[in-house]
Amino acid sequence: MTGKGVAFFLIFGIWILTGAGRIFAADITATLDSSDGSSAFSIRNSESTLKAFIDSSGNLQLRGGMRLDSGGEECTTAEMLVVDGSIGIGISNPDFKLHVNGEARITDRISLSAAPAGASDLARIVMPESSAIQGGIPTVDSSFIQFTGAATLDPGYGVWASHNAYFDGTNWRQPRGSHPSRQFTVNYHQEFAFRYAPAGGVNNEVIAPYKVASLSAGGDFSISGEIAATGTGNSSFAGDVGIGTTTPAAELDVNGDIHARNPLYWEAHYNDLGTHTTTASTIWVDYPGMTVTIDMPAAGSVLAKFSCSMFGNNTANSRTYLQMLLDGNPVTYGMHYQTATWELHSCELHKVMDVSAGLHTIKMQWKVGAGTAYGPYSGAGDVGHRTLTVIPLT
Hints:
Elements: E1 14-17, E2 23-26, E3 40-44, E4 50-55, E5 60-62, E6 87-89, E7 98-100, E8 131-136, E9 142-148, E10 158-163, E11 166-167, E12 172-174, E13 181-187, E14 191-197, E15 205-207, E16 210-216, E17 221-223, E18 241-243, E19 252-254, E20 266-273, E21 278-279, E22 285-296, E23 300-313, E24 318-326, E25 329-338, E26 345-355, E27 358-368, E28 373-374, E29 383-392
Parallel strand pairs: 6-7, 18-19
Antiparallel strand pairs: 1-2, 3-4, 4-5, 8-9, 9-10, 10-13, 11-12, 12-15, 13-14, 14-16, 16-17, 20-29, 21-28, 22-27, 23-26, 23-28, 23-29, 24-25, 24-27
């Protein structure tokens, strides 16, 4: 029996042929047996246009879409689409279980499961070089994870994670010129790097992101901007530190001037050439020029050091006394004793003191038991010095 849209059938069951040329059937088994495989079970519309057929090998071809619909409810097991082989979309000879020759869009997510126990590979996404995982829209703001294996591209082998920039296989481009782009690049054999391209220009123009920071494979860190350490922890360096030089010759090598908002030290210093500094007072008087005012940003300790060259007295068996004062209060004393006339020595006096934040005055005073004290003695051609130095310790 033949009917419209049917080529050849062996029929068991009930067939109903309607006046409209349509066949309704129940309890039917259709058997197709063709030695050359050219026959097919086919479905055609009212214009005899082929819509679907099954060939002698069991292959089903549709000229429209295929939909599994459970009326809005979740599909049951019987309604699932199960494929033992591979599915090709846009390709007739798929190489993988699902092979899409073109773009694919997933509105939810992709879940990857680990490989079975004992397998050598974990779950993975395999991508060719210079391909990308894109988030966003290229013509607006976008984020990319770019994979590359081209050694000729900067930075070479590795992964590039970018915001508002994408790689077209040859150049980096910025999808919207009003926003800057930022990149984090990983080159497995060379460096980790952060790159930046400023805003401006036209949409999708070629950009050249520049390196702002990098960490080399050897552990060297380089930055083109400023470093701000806002934490309260300590920073330490095992090697040398160079400021203004890339080849420091000491633990701290500064090629230029040092300006300290809180001074490294305070000092009163005088070199006397041919001029004596003397006293014959038997009561405490200020030592000329030996006064220092300090400004402590916070409470801490300071080291005060007085030194004088060619210090002595013009009288035998004489004593010369020294005292150091902090804000008018004596904190330490010293004495120079000599048995002969004109015994000249170097003289020093030190004191570590705890001071509060703010301004403080440290000064030296002296007096004699007899005779005249010289500090320093500076005759013709002689150069003597007197110095009061205060160094903050904390």
